[in-house]
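Attaching the record inline, Q. Sequence:
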Amino acid sequence: MAARRPLFTIGYEQSTSRRLLESLRAARVDVVVDTRAVAASRRPGFSKRQLAAALDAQGIGYIHLRGLGTPKEGRLAARAGKADVMLRIYEKHLATPHAKEQLDELVALARTGRRLCLLCYERDPHVCHRRRIAELVSKRLRIGVEHLFCAPV
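Structure, as predicted:
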């Protein structure tokens, strides 16, 4: 049996869309899974439509799993520098039916063998909810997780 492909994660904080695409191509990512609750951004190139179009031009798929995003109160805690509070809020969110359904969808997608990369804003995966998502998928499928980083501006 062939080794299972790792699940990648990446955050675009302090970077550009060009550098994000470079990092994804270097890792040979097939599909970006957007884990933001709100797939909008003030940063050029990172709003849902712009990002999906740029990825498509590179032959990379795009899926937005909004139900895996951090609820508003968690995002506010993260902006205030309270990662521990955000993660506690996020754990409660993961118990909701919609989050469970979207996590199951992500696991099914990961089973296809495509090279997936979870996307969010935060550069450091240790203060981002995407790390928790990756841990859950990793545990279910017994696959590794690799955190990618974009070159900063």
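The longest strand covers residues 7-11. Helices lie at 17-26, 48-57, 72-79, 83-94, 97-111, 129-141.

More tomorrow.
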